[in-house]
Amino acid sequence: MTQATMVNTHSGDIPTQNPCAQCGAPIAQPDWIEPGEGRVSYLWSCPACGYRFEAIAIYDEAAIPLAA
User: Fold this and answer.
1) Is residue 2 part of a domain?
2) In what order do the strands lie in the sheet with 32-36?
3) In a domain, 67, yes or no
4) Is 26 helix (H, G, I), strand (E, B) or coil?
5) Could you tell me if residue 4 is inside a domain?
6) CA–CA distance from 3 to each of 16, 56, 59, 68 (Å)?
7) Is residue 60 part of a domain?
8) Does residue 8 register a pLDDT over 70?
């Protein structure tokens, strides 16, 4: 998935200003977004300290709309 596709696919759903898991500095947006079945993974890298980490959002099956 290209970055353009990634952003278009998830526009409006992209978390912003996530705090760094190491130093707490806000990170404007994730470097990478990877959707999966019932989940979305976000790769973050901190410009302040260089720490990289992944955050995963797991969705309740009832909240996921079924494709028509």
Assistant:
1) no
2) 32-36, 39-45, 52-58
3) yes
4) strand
5) no
6) 16, 18, 23, 26
7) yes
8) no
